[in-house]
TrEMBL record:
Bilayer disposition of the protein: Multi-pass membrane protein
Main location: membrane
Protein name: Multiple sugar transport system permease protein
Keyword Transmembrane in record: yes
Organism: Cohnella phaseoli
ABC transmembrane type-1 domain span: 69-259
């Protein structure tokens, strides 16, 4: 088998996989532009008979989604900034400093990934209630400023591969620890920071259980909670659900396209060559 044939086969396989991943979003869009009667018809048709693009505006106006969007933007922006920065600081400490019990505490940190959120939700609810944070956005934002085990692990593994000559040279030039971290290591960590930010953005942007548990005031609802309001006890507005779903997906797609260059740019050899 020639090399050209192998490449064609690989590209064909990748094209099929791309279609498989894109099809759910495409189907959501096609459902969003159908009439309500056509969306509930069986068997479903691939293309709608009538393209109703005004469904997007009607769905957006059916609930105060502008307010929900503002809440989601606030929660996502602050949470992503807090998670990436705090995780980078903790990863820097675990990778560049030698202290007693370092490996034990790092393993203890990693073990927290095995604790399901279902086990923590009641203690967290009681804690946030004691703080007076219920029905505010604080329970959705503040925990992110304490880092995440997975993102700390991701950044620590990268930092461990950088020679310690960096710190030694910076110390000789009179730099302190914070200056070394902010001016030398943070720029080198751009791919890892971008990857962590996009991954955590997707988690926070689509989070449904957190706002559902901690928030009962409709003024504080986020987009996923607003989306669930289209589902009633006896009927479900599929066209509105799909319309808002498509609109909710756009920010994550845009974020990936803007961040993919940093994510793919993992070659730091130019910064570590002696």
């Amino acid at each position: 088998m020639s090399q050209k044939t192998v490449k064609i086969g690989i590209y064909a396989l990748l094209a099929l996989l791309s279609v498989a991943f894109i099809f759910p979003l495409l189907w959501a869009f096609l459902t969003a532009v159908r009439s309500a009667a056509e969306a509930g018809a069986y068997p479903p048709k691939f293309l709608p008979n009538e393209w109703r693009f005004d469904n997007f505006a009607e769905a957006w106006q059916a609930q105060p989604f502008s307010r929900y969007l503002g809440n989601s933007v606030i929660v996502t922006t602050l949470s992503v900034c807090g998670m990436t920065l705090s995780s980078a600081i903790v990863a820097y400490g675990f990778s560049r400093y030698n202290f007693k019990g370092r490996e034990f505490f790092f393993l203890l940190l990693l073990s927290t990934m095995m604790v399901p959120w279902d086990v923590l939700v009641i203690p967290l609810y009681m804690q946030f209630n004691w703080f007076g944070w219920l029905d505010t956005l604080l329970p959705l934002i503040v925990p992110a400023f304490f880092g995440g085990a997975f993102y700390i692990f991701l950044m620590r593994q990268f930092l461990r591969g950088i020679p310690h000559d960096f710190e030694e040279s910076a110390y000789l030039d009179g730099a302190n620890d914070w200056q070394i971290f902010a001016r030398i290591f943070l720029p080198l960590m751009k791919p890892q920071l971008a990857l962590a930010a996009i991954m955590y953005m997707i988690v926070v942007w689509n989070d449904y259980l957190g706002p559902l548990v901690y928030i009962s005031n409709s003024d504080k609802f986020t987009l996923p909670i607003g989306l669930s309001l289209f589902k009633g006890a006896y009927t479900t507005d599929f066209t509105s659900i799909m319309a808002i779903t498509v609109l909710m997906t756009l920010p994550t797609i845009v974020a990936f396209f803007f961040g993919q260059k940093q994510i793919l740019n993992v070659n730091v050899s130019s910064g570590v060559k002696g």
